[in-house]
Specification:
heterodimer, A: 116 residues, 7 helices, B: 152 residues, mainly alpha
């Protein structure tokens, strides 16, 4: 059942993005930025964790989960070390994503030739 | 003055000739492609939990890394841009779109060299995501921590 929920919730989040592109004429960069901020705001109210529990990868694969993980890591360290913990923990949970994006992006750019 | 009016008229006239996006079909495409990417993510997550020592909480890390690797390779082969033309937000919103923006910006500027081309342009588009993510997380984190301390 989690597979169906992941498909539907992930699809619906993308539909919201498509509506922002088509109806509100936002640029792709603006759409992604608003989604990241929206993910952080939802996490601030504790709502995003419930969505992840319900939809699994349907909530963790969209870019909204990037904002959620940034705030989540910041809060975990913040509770342990006070305000400086926010700076210590921000990238703690997103490290795998950012590291692999830089690494694989760099390697692919070295190997492949630009198309078109 | 008349020139200004002409400019206004031009914008008004040109608008009726621009192709109107087909909202319903675009949304259906975005739904199925975006849903399919998340479904692949869910399959990877289950795979990592069952065959490697990952828990439900930590399985997101290898899943994201694998999706990013696939997206970077597809961008290198020029396939991801074709998916993007078809799916719109369906391939933009998942984390694969983030990987695509990093890889395509780096590839585009490859001719300028490895340091000045690839490395400096890697975050050309993805930089906005990280900047806004970190700034909003910092602001919200300070507010929440302040409220937590206040309420005990």
């Amino acid at each position: 059942m989690i597979f169906l929920y992941a498909f539907v919730v992930g699809g619906l989040i993308c539909v919201v993005g498509q509506l922002l592109l088509d109806l509100f004429k936002l640029s792709p960069a603006h759409v992604i930025v608003s989604f990241v901020v929206a993910g952080a705001v939802l996490d601030a109210f504790g709502l995003y964790d419930k969505l992840i529990e319900f939809a699994g990868a349907g909530a963790t694969v969209p870019i909204t989960s990037f904002g959620h993980s940034l705030l989540h890591g910041a809060m975990a360290e913040g509770k342990a070390h006070g305000y400086i913990g926010i700076a210590m923990g921000t990238f703690k949970l997103t490290s795998a994503g950012i590291t692999s994006a830089i690494l694989f992006g760099f390697i692919v750019a070295l190997i492949f030739k630009p198309k078109g | 003055m008349s020139q200004l009016n002409n400019q206004k008229d031009y914008k008004k006239n040109a608008k009726s000739y621009q192709p109107k996006p087909n909202y319903v079909i675009n949304c259906i495409k975005a739904f199925f492609v975006g849903g399919a990417i998340c479904l692949i993510g869910q399959c990877l997550q289950v795979f990592f939990i069952h065959f490697f020592d990952f828990t439900e909480k930590t399985a997101g890390n290898p899943t994201t890394a694998t999706l990013i690797l696939i997206a970077a390779l597809l961008t290198g082969f020029g396939i991801y841009d074709k998916i993007g033309q078809f799916a719109g937000a369906g391939s933009l919103v998942p984390v694969t779109g983030f990987a695509n923006s990093i890889t395509s910006a780096a590839l585009e500027h490859k001719s300028e060299g490895i340091v000045l081309g690839i490395a400096t342009n890697l975050f050309k588009l993805a930089g906005a995501v990280i900047v806004f993510g970190v700034v909003s997380a910092a602001i919200l984190g300070v507010i929440r921590l302040f409220l937590n301390n206040l309420l005990g």
